[in-house]
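Record type: ASSEMBLY
Status: queued
Input:
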Amino acid sequence: MKQITAILVGFGSTIQLLVRALSYTATLPRQWARFIEQCYLIGYTTLPIVAILSFFIGSVLALQAGYSMADFGAKEFIGTLVGLSMARELGPVMVAILVAGRVGSAIAAELASMKVYQEIDVLETMNIPPARMLVLPRLAAILVMMPVLAIIADLVGWYGGAIVAKYTHAIAIDPETYFAALRHFMKFKDVVNGLMKAEVFGFGVVLVSCNIGLNTSGGPREVGASVTKAVVVSLILILVADYFITDVLQQIFP
Amino acid sequence: MPSPSSSATRNPFTEAETPAVGVALEHLVKDFGSHKVLKDVSFAVSPGEIFVLMGPSGSGKSVLLKQIVGLEAPTSGRVLVDGRDAIDPATREQVRMALVFQSGALFNSLSVYDNLALYPREHRVASEAAIREKVMRALQIISLEDTADKFPSELSGGMKKRVAIARALVMEPQLMLYDEPTSELDPVTSASISEIIATLREEYHVTTIVVSHDRDLALNIADCIGLLIGGELIFNGTPAELRASKDPVITDFLNPKIDLKNPRFKKLAT
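Status: finished
Output:
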């Protein structure tokens, strides 16, 4: 019962934080520098790990599927499998998981230590709402950077699959065949579908991490606890939301 | 010293006058679960007055400060700042209050300059050139002009507290609150902090509430002293009245005797 109450309280405070942050949307243009800084932190610094991970996800997909499909004489369709898997599911989900681990944890740690060391209290006494200064620029930045990261993840994953398909002896599919199959069966809506998912996941991760960070109480030890909580809650959110968003998107774009 | 009833805070940067504010606590009670931290505390601070709230550690002084700035809601009773309820968010929009935290609570990711410039930038009260002038003047007042480009991690404890005071000063506050401004400082630095607090009130007539257990600070700069013990205000009067008090609790707090033959910790253990 206590845990259910805690979950409901957490959900309520997250929604409250979102409403408060959105009420300051008009201040975004004059927070341009903060927005750009967050775009850099969320997007640019996450890019290398997104690229490395996506390359190997695409590669392993091609490798796993390649051997099985070769047995059925269907290895020409590896490009379709890798392309659709990356665009619709693995790209957005893996990027969101990386964002949760790298960005969400950093946000929770930063805001939690600001709370523990009374910097948030100082902002409030200065009549500077933390939702305006600390949350809004981060939410705006993730909305801009998440689709960029997801597109890069898709592209790198596709090329990773292509390289493995070409240089693995048992598969040996040339890139022309690989990309022809990818283009033939994949539609624009598949990519859009994935980008919409990524957008929702990223937004949720940043919002949840901000809320957990700002609601930290106690000493420095609680900063670590908040980081762990932010990552765990974000991962649960991503995977649960993935099911429901997939279901909704399937009905909207059959 | 100016009269405690001074009614205007002279803006330190523009010489314009803004009204200093009075503070009144009415039957303030604060509980954390079953733990009663503040028990029916009432007192008033006149505009332009320095009120020092003393008391042993854990007596509820810092909690009381948070009630005054509206960071925490009281369990019952109320705090009026300039006649407005402190917990109402509109009060912070109407009255400029600055709280200097015990740790300084400087923004660690910002330089000293940016720490001071944050308030005027966020509230867009001046151009960048005017903000620069305000910030450098505030740093000059506390003799730390050369720290503008440093980060809080590069400052000593005393410097952090002085920078926190300067940051509060840039807000041109009508009410300044200090939480243990001299704790963890050597006697000379403590004395200089006390001088800064007194000078700021003298120069700018800002209403000042200081929470401290520093006897020298209280007796030297306060217009009025409150003594909070166990969440109850057991004394409220002038420094002279406090010195003259024969109440054993007060005299023991002000002049604790170190009795090696009957140490307190052994008494507690038995």
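Annotation: Chain A has a mean pLDDT of 92.
Annotation: The interface with chain B takes residues 30, 110, 113-114, 117-119, 121-122, 124-128, 133 of chain A (CB under 8 Å).
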